[in-house]
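Example record used in the benchmark description.
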Amino acid sequence: AGVYDVKTLKLKLHPQEETKYNSPWNIAVDFQIDMSFDCKDIKSMLEEYEAEHRTGMDTEKISRMLYEYTSGYPYLVSKICQIMDERLSGMGEFREKAAIWTKEGVLAALKILLKEPNTLFDDMTKKLLDHPQLKEMLQHILFGGIDFPFKRETPVVDLGVTFGFLKDKNGIVAVSNRIFETQLYDMFLAEMAVNNKMY
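Model output (structure tokens):
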């Protein structure tokens, strides 16, 4: 889900040559498979977990909530569930398994996820440093409320979709999920604070 398009690799491999959009093999094959989970996928994973651990969770409710925050981004779904399973156990109000697999448990796991570094967020930061135009577009979307038409033919939009940062929302470019929105807000605000001497 996070790999580069072959044409983008071509641009990286031969920067001294004229920019070309064909692959080294002169082929162009669209990748049409949606790698993200839907609510049913998440629910079936939770049901497998529930069959083994018997927490008493409402798998329908928790799967919907996980989807609301992640839009089915596989790493995020798995990471939140891992935090709930391995980290929340025994913490404060989460002494029992039944208390973990609730709305409060999901929210507590989200706080932990957004507070700590992880490979996905590290990669996101690197990608935005490498592609300042994409970073600028995200800042305009988040802070300026600017609408950009969703056209994959626009290189910066295509790049954002390839990285999983952007999606089509009724013909307008949008950040792909609520967790990415929150992470990007926090990252940009922290950056502004450091760069602004008046802060």
